[in-house]
Specification:
By secondary structure, the protein is of the alpha/beta class. It has 14 helices and 8 strands.
């Protein structure tokens, strides 16, 4: 999965789709000016893929959680952080918010939203999670997260439970450094992993791994690159059969220790399916070339690649087919409907969290 810069499809992103067969893209605020523009951009990207012979549509994703993580501002609905839903405790409101997020994303041609956060907020010094989480009760987080997943996926938008096995009790930002969580395996299973079991039971389409080191699980590799965490725990213990993402491989928790080609291969070998490289074209090429070399050398088996491709294809067939290009006029009509705005205002008021864009901490 790659990101790119600008409001139009760049030459680099077109090359990656045409020549490298990249099948997954992520949009950031740098790619977003408004509903019509995003719909037109996604139509163009999908046309590039069709012309290049892709057999299934591109999966185009965004981080649209609410609160401070929102790439699409007005006229789209501005949502309060998930902590507001946690204070209310209503599965119905969580499900309706998920459905509204899905409607706005899908109308603009975005069929994957990296939400909801399933991290349990147990550390007041956590600089990256905080009110992005539903709260500090793993059962509450699991219950509301599962409801939001149901609302999103019923709207034909891929949800993503993140960040497995749990980023809530860290005191570092993995964008800037590698956090370490020293908890025992039994504590991690009882608190951090419990919401993810609910997400798996809700048939969540994707799970995103944390760039966090859990020495009791793997003393050397962060969860995103760990065979023990991805294959042994998530796939085998939790019986998860869906698509697994790493977090962005250019985040410093990983990038300060491994080059993109190495981290991509470690992630693939750990049984991750999609590896986002979100910023640099050179890093994207490096990661792809490293992946090709690893498969050719047998470090990653063709059997593993086939399994990953099968999981990805099943996800795309379920959520992207039959494919229809987004209509810019419909994207504008669906953005910020009175019903969605009223829902956001109700959640904000009852949950005691403000609505503001862009988000500020004051």
């Amino acid at each position: 999965m790659i990101g790119f810069h600008g409001l139009e499809a760049s030459p680099d992103v077109k090359t990656m789709i045409r020549e490298f067969g990249v099948g997954h893209l992520i949009l950031f605020a740098r790619n977003v000016a408004g509903p019509e523009q995003v719909a037109d951009l996604n139509r163009e990207l999908q046309q590039v893929a069709r012309d290049a012979g892709h057999g299934v549509p591109l999966l185009i994703a965004v981080d649209q959680e609410g609160g401070r993580v929102a790439r699409m501002g007005p006229p789209w609905t501005v949502w309060p952080p998930l902590r507001a839903l946690g204070r209310i405790g209503s599965e119905d409101l969580a499900r309706r918010m998920g459905a509204a997020l899905a409607a706005e994303c899908a109308a603009a041609g975005i069929r994957c939203d990296f939400a909801p956060i399933m991290d349990v907020d147990t550390n007041s010094r956590n600089p990256i999670i905080g009110n992005r989480s539903f709260g500090d009760d793993p059962d509450l987080v699991g219950r509301l997260g599962a409801a939001m997943i149901e609302g999103m996926q019923k709207g034909k938008v891929v949800a993503s439970a993140k960040h497995f096995p749990g980023h809530g009790d860290t005191d570092l930002d993995s964008h800037l450094a590698l956090p370490v969580v020293e908890h025992s395996r039994s504590r991690l299973e009882d608190v951090e992993m419990r919401p993810f079991r609910r997400a798996v039971a809700a048939d969540v389409a994707t799970i995103m791994m944390a760039h966090v080191l859990y020495p009791e699980l793997d003393a050397e590799l962060p969860a995103s690159l760990s065979v023990t965490v991805v294959r042994d725990i998530l796939r085998e213990d939790l019986k998860y059969e869906g698509v697994v993402f790493t977090d962005d491989l250019e985040m410093k928790a990983v990038a300060d220790r491994w080059t993109p080609d190495r981290s991509a291969v470690l992630a693939m070998a750990a049984d991750c399916d999609i590896v986002p490289v979100c910023q640099s074209h050179d890093a994207q090429v490096n990661a792809l070339e490293g992946a090709v070399r690893a498969v050719e050398a047998g470090e990653v088996s063709f059997k593993m690649m086939d399994r990953s491709l099968g999981r990805i294809r099943r996800m795309k067939e379920r959520y992207l087919l039959p494919y229809q290009d987004p209509d810019p006029r419909q994207a504008r009509r669906v953005a910020g409907t009175p019903e969605s705005v009223a829902l956001a205002e109700e959640i904000a008021e009852r949950g005691g969290e403000p609505i503001r864009f862009p988000w500020t901490a004051d």
